[in-house]
Write a structure and sequence with these properties.
CATH topology: TIM Barrel
Helix content: 40-55%
Distance between the termini: 23 Å
CATH class: Alpha Beta
Function: Pyridoxal 5'-phosphate (PLP)-binding protein, which is involved in PLP homeostasis.
Order of helices and strands: HEHEHHEHEHEHEHEHEH
Protein name: Pyridoxal phosphate homeostasis protein
Number of helices: 10
Number of strands: 8
Cofactor: pyridoxal 5'-phosphate
Strand content: 15-25%
Shape: globular
Organism: Magnetospirillum molischianum DSM 120
CATH architecture: Alpha-Beta Barrel
Keywords: Pyridoxal phosphate
Structural class: alpha/beta
Bound molecules: pyridoxal-5'-phosphate
Length: 221
């Protein structure tokens, strides 16, 4: 078994254990394998091990790695988990199945226009800056309801959930719980939260998707 296959198997069994511990249904948490900075061969190895959901944080890197793989594996689903500039929206919509990082009104408008033009409709998540960190992307938690309403009412975008990256070096629990609460009160079913260091906590707090990179693919150079 390749190291990547072994890494995936270990993460899958830890997700299953976390689901069981939280008395959640088996299979209720989806694993997004974050392959950023790792070569196409790493993605191929993960595909061979049955993995189908992948995350990338850069449009350009994804364009270099995935088009051919998507042809070979029509069930491969690609998530954009990094910041999206408006001038990359056209390419992002052509390439990604889920855009997890909608965080401002202008981006909502450009996404809506391009979705209409292209006739392709990726799933959309709103990124929330759950720890209100200056340097981090995401809508302020107090503005999230307003942005969600704007997406629905003004731009005909129907977001399906929320995504966050809690502050490093803090207990992520209150942040995950707050994201779950924000999602619930807006009727949003998807909660993308938890990474290599904290995904079991995220599962306990109601994550539906965890985004795990280094624990599968190894450290990024
Ligand atoms: C890199 C990244 C991850 C994966 O992080 P690991 O700590 O390597 O698991 C998850 N989410 C986002 C938004 C990322 O940029």
């Amino acid at each position: 078994m390749s190291e990547i296959a072994a890494g995936l198997a270990a993460i899958r069994s830890r997700i299953a254990a976390a689901e069981a511990a939280a008395q959640r249904a088996s299979g209720s948490v989806a694993l997004v394998a974050v392959a950023k900075t790792h070569p196409t061969e790493a993605v191929v190895a993960a595909l061979a091990a049955g993995q189908r959901l992948f995350g990338e944080n850069r449009v350009q890197e994804a364009r270099a790695k995935y088009p051919e793989l998507k042809e070979r594996h029509p069930d491969l689903r690609l998530h954009l988990i990094g910041p999206l500039q408006t001038n990359k929206v056209r390419e992002a919509i052509a390439l990604f199945d889920v855009i997890e990082t909608l965080d401002r009104p202008k981006l909502a408008r450009v996404l809506a226009d391009e979705i209409d033009r292209a006739g392709r409709r990726p799933d959309i998540l709103i990124q929330v800056n759950i720890g209100r960190e200056q340097q981090k992307a995401g809508v302020d938690p107090d503005q999230a309801d307003t942005l969600i309403a704007l997406c629905r009412d003004e731009y005909r975008l129907e977001p399906c959930g929320l995504m966050c990256i809690p502050p490093a070096g803090e207990d992520p629990t209150p942040h995950f719980l707050r994201l779950a609460e924000l999602a619930a009160r807006n009727g949003l079913p998807v909660r993308s939260m938890g990474m290599s260091e904290d995904f079991p906590v995220a599962v306990a707090c109601g994550a539906t998707h965890v985004r795990v990179g280094s624990a599968i693919f190894g450290y990024r150079g």
